[in-house]
């Protein structure tokens, strides 16, 4: 439990993103509060609080909260409700978020809710802070999600996530569903505040009772699409963090298997330790918590994860957790590979869509034992190789595919008819025009084997 809390504390840290930069600019802008008092936009007791509080440095404000925290937070929420001017509202929201930069200060929001619960008066949604004096600690921020200003919307989302996740306050089911659906609608690559949306989700997914609504929304579908595109390492990290939070529950792991392929691709290219670490933690959970861990392992093997972790295990890591996770995943995948038959390994590699020169392809003993197995399931493997020969751009994969076609007909003479019937020969011939000399060479050799096999087969038949 201590390890989990430490890891969440490390991985949920913020970054310098659009919201942070804009908040710094807004914080530096002076606000004239007296005109708002004269025009009765704000009440005198709120003016007396904010006029002093807003002149303090952030450090002084943190100290002041220790003395008058509840009064200050009530004032800030009252201002959030009463102020319509976007510039001033932005400023107030920055001050609220600054309060929550110390998670201990969520207690003031909890105290406000406790006061409301002890009151016999009911506050309707959107009417917090009415004439009776009650004020909700979270409803104003939920209401602000309907505003047109991007900063106000995203700052409110982050504040609301902190209020309902950091302490004991929890959003009711109806408003939670609405909030999660709103967050999902913001999961767009074009959203310049995507960091903030994901930061909000990171906070909320730390709360176990929030995970089911996230899982059953379209959130995972949106994330799967995003992870399959070119996005920053920070966004990759934040999304995988969310997946990791869900992977602690076995019933959620089945849908998470869809993320093995894109995260394996990210893992092969990752240079940031935090990205590697969180992917390893996700894989470790999937291999441990999934009801059928063999399925998770097979997908990882198809995605060449065992190759990546084989390289990662040799590195010197500053974070001991990474080393432990890498070794754990490697050991499980190594054991799984030993349990799988040689042909199972070959099949998994073909399904991965990325072939490499290895004993599975170059060892004649493999082909003597397994050539006929390429005919299984209505020539499933041959059909997959045909697709790769048509669509794949990787020279190594193309060369290995051509080689395998040649080995198939060399060790299974009748197979030449399958090669021609399925259009494999035609695809191999097309490789003769490939720009890569190794691909050309492999294609030429495969065609030679096909023709030689044809001659040998005909000679034997005529004899």
Question: Main β-sheet: number of strands, strand sense, barrel status?
Answer: none
SS element count, helices = 28
Strand content: under 5%
Mean pLDDT: 89
Shape: elongated
Order of helices and strands: HHHHHHHHHHHHHHHHHHHHHHHHHHHH
Q: Radius of gyration over alpha carbons?
A: 30 Å
Report helical residue fraction: over 70%
Question: TL;DR of this structure?
Answer:
The chain has 463 residues and is mainly alpha-helical.
Task: Report on the architecture of this protein.
With 463 residues, the chain is an all-alpha fold. Helices cover 71% and strands 0% of the residues. It has helices at residues 2-11, 18-27, 34-38, 44-53, 58-82, 86-99, 106-118, 139-143, 150-165, 173-185, 194-204, 208-216, 219-227, 233-246, 250-256, 260-269, 273-289, 293-302, 305-312, 320-339, 342-352, 359-362, 364-370, 376-391, 395-411, 415-421, 424-430, 437-462. Helix 5 packs across helix 6 and helix 11 (194-204) runs parallel beside helix 14 (233-246).
Topology of this structure?
Blueprint lengths: L1 H10 L6 H10 L6 H5 L5 H10 L4 H25 L3 H14 L6 H13 L20 H5 L6 H16 L7 H13 L8 H11 L3 H9 L2 H9 L5 H14 L3 H7 L3 H10 L3 H17 L3 H10 L2 H8 L7 H20 L2 H11 L6 H4 L1 H7 L5 H16 L3 H17 L3 H7 L2 H7 L6 H26 L1
Notable features of this structure?
463 residues; elongated; 28 helices; mainly alpha
């Amino acid at each position: 439990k201590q390890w989990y809390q430490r890891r969440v504390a490390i991985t949920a840290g913020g970054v310098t993103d659009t919201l942070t930069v804009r908040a710094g600019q807004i914080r530096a802008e002076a606000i004239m509060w007296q005109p708002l008092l004269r025009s009765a936009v704000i009440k005198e007791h709120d003016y007396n609080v904010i006029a002093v509080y807003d002149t303090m440095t952030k450090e002084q404000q943190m100290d002041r909260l220790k003395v008058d925290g509840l009064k200050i937070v009530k004032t800030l929420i009252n201002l959030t409700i009463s102020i319509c001017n976007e510039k001033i509202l932005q400023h107030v929201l920055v001050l609220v978020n600054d309060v929550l930069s110390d998670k201990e200060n969520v207690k003031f929001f909890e105290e406000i809710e406790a006061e409301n619960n002890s009151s016999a008066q009911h506050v309707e949604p959107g009417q917090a802070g009415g004439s009776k004096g009650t004020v909700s600690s979270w409803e104003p921020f939920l209401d602000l999600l309907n505003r047109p200003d991007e900063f106000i919307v995203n700052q409110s989302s982050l504040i609301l996530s902190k209020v309902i996740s950091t302490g004991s306050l929890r959003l009711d089911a109806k408003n939670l569903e609405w909030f999660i659906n709103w967050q999902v609608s913001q999961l767009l690559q074009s959203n310049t505040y995507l960091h903030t949306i994901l930061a909000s989700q990171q906070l909320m997914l730390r709360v176990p009772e929030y995970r089911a609504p996230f899982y059953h929304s379209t959130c995972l579908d949106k994330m799967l699409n995003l992870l399959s595109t070119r996005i920053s390492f920070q966004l990759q990290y934040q999304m995988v963090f969310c997946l990791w939070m869900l992977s602690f529950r076995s019933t959620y792991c089945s849908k998470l298997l869809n993320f093995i392929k894109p995260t394996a691709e990210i893992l092969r290219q990752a240079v940031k330790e935090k990205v590697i670490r969180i992917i390893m933690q996700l894989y470790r959970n999937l291999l441990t918590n999934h009801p059928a861990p063999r399925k998770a392992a097979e997908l990882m093997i198809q995605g060449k994860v065992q190759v990546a972790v084989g390289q990662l295990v040799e590195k010197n890591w500053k974070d001991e957790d990474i080393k432990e996770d890498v070794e754990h995943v490697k050991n499980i995948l190594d054991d799984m590979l030993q349990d799988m038959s040689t042909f199972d390994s070959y099949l998994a590699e073909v399904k991965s869509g990325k072939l490499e020169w290895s004993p599975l392809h170059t060892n004649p003993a493999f082909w003597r034992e397994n050539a006929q197995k390429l005919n299984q399931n209505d020539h499933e493997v041959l059909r997959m190789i045909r697709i790769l020969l048509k669509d794949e751009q990787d020279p190594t994969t193309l060369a290995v595919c051509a080689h395998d076609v040649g080995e198939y007909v060399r060790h299974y003479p009748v197979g030449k008819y399958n090669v021609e019937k399925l259009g494999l020969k035609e695809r191999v011939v097309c490789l003769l025009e490939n720009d890569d000399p190794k691909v050309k060479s492999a294609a030429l050799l495969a065609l030679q084997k096909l023709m030689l096999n044809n001659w040998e087969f005909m000679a034997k038949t005529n004899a």
